[in-house]
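Troubleshooting log. The previous run stalled partway through. Resubmitting the same four chains, unchanged.
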Amino acid sequence: MTTNHDGTLERLFEFATLLTDLLDRGLEQQGLSRPRAEVLWRIHHHGPTTQRQLADSLQCTPRNVTGLVDALDALGLVERQRHPSDRRAVLVALTPTGRRTVDNLLAAYRSRASELLDGISGPQLTSFLATLAQVADRLRPDSRPPPVDGSPRLAR
Amino acid sequence: MTTNHDGTLERLFEFATLLTDLLDRGLEQQGLSRPRAEVLWRIHHHGPTTQRQLADSLQCTPRNVTGLVDALDALGLVERQRHPSDRRAVLVALTPTGRRTVDNLLAAYRSRASELLDGISGPQLTSFLATLAQVADRLRPDSRPPPVDGSPRLAR
DNA sequence: TATTGTTATACTCTATAACTATA
DNA sequence: TATAGTTATAGAGTATAACAATA
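Second attempt completed without errors. Output:
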């Protein structure tokens, strides 16, 4: 017997929209688009990264990474470095300005999270997150295992 | 005293990503992009709609609507009709094919919702949705009131 | 004068394909 | 021969600005 979940799915989608809008507003304050922010985010977690690795983790083409890195380079947030052992490859690293930008993003999100969650009791939050994890598990396509490095792909 | 919610916000963002990915996979099966699907969705709920109204509800420029309607028209999902009283305006309506496409989307989402939520007990789901609504209320910017017509903006 | 929707133009993100320098 | 990253080209979505037709 299948329960009628019609309105529920729409509420979930609206929730997702609100969350990604929150994310976007934070990025916008730093003058960043979502794809560009995601590149910074990856490098922040992995350290200097080849464009090939970026293409794999962002699930886009190498050509696309070229454009994103070009743009971030022009903004002074990122720089290309020589790969120590492979002269075909390029390492993309954060500049000091890039590091500061990521720090600003993190600080903004920490304060946002407080506003969002502080009024909710510990047990209520725990139960909420447990159900959320349960639903998330069913949402995860087999092709994409849960992130292991603490840097989930930012919402698209 | 502010609790440390660092990982929590990231889990919420990942959840949003998974949900919007689910949404996109459904749209992709109907050969639709998110902006185009949103136009269909709006017209499905409001009936024939002027491009001005579409621009307002999608929060984009009229120029943008022109492009989206052109594309949906070329796909045979939508047609432009004369406005009965304002000869400047255009009414955009679903074609029979467009209606069938929307019906397919709805059916697909109903079955997806079952897969996603059926194993969760009634009380657990109720409590989950209550907390979700509480967080959603704090997420909603003043500028965008909660949807009143059952057609929340699709996630971006 | 204000509004509706268009043309003109430009920018971002995305993709495929062909090419180069290296492995 | 395969891989890393580029150039070339194209298409979708978005924006602003100028304009035509209508209100």
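Takeaways: The mean pLDDT of chain A is 89. Residues 50-52, 55, 62-63, 65-66, 83, 86-90 of chain A lie near DNA strand D (CB under 10 Å from a C1').
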